[in-house]
Automatic annotation (TrEMBL):
Residues 290-460 form the Acyl-CoA dehydrogenase/oxidase C-terminal domain. This is 3-methylmercaptopropionyl-CoA dehydrogenase. Involved in the assimilation of dimethylsulphoniopropionate (DMSP), an important compound in the fixation of carbon in marine phytoplankton, by mediating the conversion of 3-(methylthio)propanoyl-CoA (MMPA-CoA) to 3-(methylthio)acryloyl-CoA (MTA-CoA). Residues 166-273 form the Acyl-CoA oxidase/dehydrogenase middle domain. One of its GO terms (molecular function) is flavin adenine dinucleotide binding. Belongs to the acyl-CoA dehydrogenase family. Keywords: FAD, Flavoprotein, Oxidoreductase. SUPFAM superfamilies: Acyl-CoA dehydrogenase C-terminal domain-like, Acyl-CoA dehydrogenase NM domain-like. Residues 40-160 form the Acyl-CoA dehydrogenase/oxidase N-terminal domain. GO terms for cellular component: plasma membrane. Its cofactor is FAD. It comes from Cystobacter ferrugineus. It catalyses: 3-(methylsulfanyl)propanoyl-CoA + oxidized [electron-transfer flavoprotein] + H(+) = 3-(methylsulfanyl)acryloyl-CoA + reduced [electron-transfer flavoprotein]. Its EC number is 1.3.99.41.
Length: 612
């Protein structure tokens, strides 16, 4: 594939259906605090974003991957074209859509901004990480910072003047954040001297903005061990005066950048703070020892962003595979496969290729629905706060519950579906002439960073399901149950809905098993052994439900449609039926496997794994 050629593909009609027809954007937009937004404005934004993706970001995806980042004179140089793309992203307002007007944002619904992010990430996932991290860091300061910190940092980070990062991981600690050794020593003026090393810092250094604002977890001297003793600090790469002007280096040095399998145009950095005892930071909000709770506000957003990345690459991989399958001719149709004179058929006519494509289509549509549903809950919680606290709490609870699903299922399926796109292309897909090999390499990191998917699974079963006395999970199951009861006898989807009911029963049985294990010290090890499986089961129930919900809507509306619109709505039917018939039965089987309470992997001795 030649550099400079856009290969990003998406069907905006799919986004419009999910946003407007399935999740009722019009019921959220046009009401405070989203008064200025409506369907017409949302469509215009999505169309504008897609043009930018095709014209600017898409053509830089392969070239950025080939060129990668490099270090010159202790600083990161990003690939050619990235500086102009950075400028364009901010000039066109793509990163301020859901930001607060108090900080120069447009105050739009999250339902819209997640789809904008899907388009930007799908076109160039590595590039989009730079402004994405800056946005997340700015939002954290906006929520947790002092009034002075908000005034100094937030708007500059939201408008692209400054970048931003989150700095948690250390060489000796990895995901065990509580083992961090970075220190903070208080100065007489209330600032802190920061010292330590952070690794795997995405966007930790770059030449896109005039400054990079790091949010750094460190332990104030004398603080207790573990995560409870960590505080969060604002640490600029270049020191900032109270008026926002820059005043010289802040003893933040680039140790190195990683050479990676994918997202090569995203600089993954080793950063050293205070090697010369001259690194100064500000305590976020002026509050000590609450660094983890503050950082989780950014981490939760980052985890949703990873789910968006996964969806984005799986989606464009699917549409590239679909286009190739329609064009590539190979082999005779099945009913003429013994006839050597039969004309060659497009490979989309072959049954197994159609199976792979429908599997990709159904998963992409279902994960997008799950993502927009999470965003809808976020928007409604925002709207109802202070007006209907009970309903606001319900929506916030669903956001908490769905976040690990979006991150884990979206990222796991992304890598698998991108690899399946290679299979549709055959040998051509394994070559760099087509984009799917890069999509596959890029997507592998999604299940690892921002908390590995096992961390997400343990968060689900160990924390999220028990929140509010288990009410959030019970409400989720009630929502699924209400759909089942309403459509169990549907003339087209009745049997599929019954399959969803069986899957829901298996999920509930497994949830009760986990509850029992948590109360039995002899069986607690079964929880980490089963957590990933349970998260996948719950994700499949959620996606199966939302695909069937979309199909019921499409069936009703599609009766009067013609032409391309009729075919579009028909696609919703087959996505739902395929998933119900081929994925939902896995939930029942997984529930049976959990009931076996297998502990083989902990019972085996370490020596028995092999001598090496």
């Amino acid at each position: 594939m030649s550099a400079g050629i856009n290969t990003y593909k998406i069907d905006l009609r799919e986004l419009y259906f999910t946003l407007f027809e399935q999740f009722g954007f019009g019921q959220v937009a046009g009401q405070a605090p989203f008064d200025a937004w409506g369907p017409d404005e949302a469509k215009a934004v999505l169309e504008q974003t897609y043009r930018f993706a095709k014209d600017v970001l898409g053509p830089l995806n392969a070239s950025g991957d080939r060129e990668g980042c490099r270090v010159e004179n202790g600083s990161v140089i990003t690939p050619k074209g990235f500086k102009d793309a950075w400028k364009g992203v901010y000039e066109q307002g793509f990163k301020s859509i859901s930001a607060s007007p108090d900080h120069g944002g447009q105050g739009g619904p999250m339902m819209l901004s997640v789809l904008v992010e899907e388009i930007l990430s799908g076109a160039n996932s590595a590039f989009n990480m730079y402004p994405g991290l800056a946005y997340g860091a700015a939002e954290l300061v906006a929520e947790c910072g002092t009034p002075e910190q908000k005034k100094l940092y937030v708007e500059r980070m939201l408008n692209g003047t400054w970048g931003g990062t989150m700095c948690l991981t250390e060489p000796q600690a990895g995901s065990d954040v509580g083992a961090a050794k970075s220190t903070a020593r208080k100065n007489a003026d209330g600032t802190y001297n920061i010292r330590g090393t952070k690794i795997f810092i995405s966007g930790g250094d770059h030449d896109l903005a005039e400054n990079v604002i790091h949010l750094v977890l460190a332990r104030i001297e004398g603080a207790v061990p573990g995560t409870k003793g960590l505080s969060l600090f604002i640490v600029p790469k270049i020191r900032v005066k109270p008026d926002g002007s820059l005043q010289g280096p802040n003893d933040v040095t680039l140790g190195s950048i990683e050479h990676k399998m994918g997202i090569r145009a995203s600089a993954t950095c080793v950063l050293n703070f205070g090697e010369n005892d001259g690194c100064v930071g500000e305590l976020v909000g002026g509050i000590e020892n609450v660094g983890m709770s503050q950082m989780f506000k950014m981490m939760n957003g980052a985890r949703i962003a990873v789910g968006i990345q996964g969806l984005a690459l799986a989606s464009t991989a699917y549409f590239n595979a679909l286009e190739y399958a329609k064009d590539r001719k190979q082999g005779a149709p099945a009913h003429k496969w013994k006839d050597p004179t039969a004309p060659r058929a497009a490979i989309i006519e072959h049954a197994d290729v159609r199976r792979m494509l429908l599997e990709m289509k159904s998963h992409v549509e279902g994960i997008r629905a799950l993502l927009v549903k999470l965003a809808m809950h976020t928007d409604k919680a925002h709207q109802l706060a202070g007006k209907d606290d009970t309903q606001a709490a319900y929506h916030r609870g669903q956001v908490e519950l769905l976040t690990p699903l979006v991150k884990s299922y979206g990222s796991d399926q992304s890598f698998r579906l991108c690899a399946q796109a290679i299979q549709v292309f055959g040998g051509a897909g394994y070559c760099q002439d087509y984009p799917v090999e890069q999509y596959t390499r890029d997507s592998k990191i999604f299940s690892i960073y921002e908390g590995t998917n096992h961390i997400q699974a343990m968060d689900l079963v160990g924390r999220k399901m028990g929140q509010a006395g288990g009410a959030h999970f019970q409400q989720f199951m009630s929502d699924v149950g209400s759909f089942i009861e309403a459509h169990r006898e549907h003339k087209i989807y009745g049997e599929a809905v019954k399959q969803l009911a069986a899957a829901q029963e298996g999920l509930m049985a497994s949830a009760m098993a986990i509850l029992g294990w948590s109360q039995d010290p002899a069986k607690m090890t079964l929880i980490p052994l089963s957590a990933n499986r349970f998260l996948n089961m719950m994700s499949e129930v959620a996606v199966g439900w939302l695909l069937l919900d979309a199909a019921v809507i499409a069936e009703r509306v599609g009766e009067k449609a013609t032409g391309d619109e009729k075919a579009f709505y028909e696609g919703k039917r087959w996505s739902a039926l395929w998933y119900a018939r081929n994925v939902l039965p896995n939930v029942e089987q997984a529930a049976r496997m959990m009931a076996l309470e297998d502990t083989s992997s902990v019972d085996i001795s370490t020596q028995a794994f092999g001598a090496i």
